[in-house]
Design brief:
The chain is α+β, with helices and mostly antiparallel strands and 162 residues long. The protein contains seven helices and five strands, in the order ββαββαβααααα. It folds into two domains: 76 residues, Ubiquitin-like (UB roll) (Roll), CATH 3.10.20.30; 76 residues, [2Fe-2S]-binding domain (DNA polymerase, domain 1, Orthogonal Bundle), CATH 1.10.150.120. The chain has a five-stranded mixed beta sheet, sandwiched between helices. The longest helix is centred in the C-terminal third of the chain and has 15 residues.
Length: 162
């Protein structure tokens, strides 16, 4: 068994996991953070994306033991002081939620995307960078609109807010 120590959504957590336990399963099963979804088991769909040390990572591609010592933000930690993150508000406003299964991964990918492009985004960049997130409801048009809107509203402060 591996000892796993993380800071998850601002809270220090400790636990044990089998050496082969993926981060996504540790988050869901050991910590009860079920907002991070398991979609394909092949790292193709993007529903399991979380931020590890500030960067978007498919949590089905990293072992919990490998992440030990890291800071992890899940969808449950995206909002600020109980308020919706600007991306969450934009997804709601632009009806980018559809069935909701891909939404946590889309939001986490989009937050990282905005952080990496604090001067703004264009539609082509958003579409290209979200290719690794599969929406089975084909709701990409509204998702792209929501990301562009949030990016514009977050402006130059995106790196701090995302």
């Amino acid at each position: 068994m591996a000892k796993v120590e993380l800071v998850v959504n601002g809270r220090a957590v400790k636990g044990e996991a089998e050496d082969r336990t993926l981060l996504v399963h540790f988050l869901r099963e050991n910590l009860g953070l079920t907002g991070t979804h398991v979609g394909c088991d092949t790292s193709q769909c993007g529903t399991c994306i979380v931020h590890v040390d500030g960067r978007a990572v498919k949590s089905c591609t990293i072992l919990a033991a490998q992440a030990s010592g890291s800071t992890v933000t899940t969808i449950e930690g995206l909002g600020i002081n109980g308020e919706l993150h600007p991306l969450q508000a934009a997804f709601r406003e632009h009806h980018a939620l559809q069935c909701g299964f891909c939404t946590p991964g889309m939001l986490m990918s989009s937050a990282d995307l905005i952080r990496r492009h604090p001067d703004g985004l264009d539609e082509a960049t958003v579409r290209l960078e979200l290719e690794g997130n599969i929406c089975r409801c084909t709701g990409y048009h509204n998702i792209v609109k929501a990301v562009l809107d949030a990016s514009e509203k977050m402006g130059k402060g995106a790196e701090k807010a995302a």
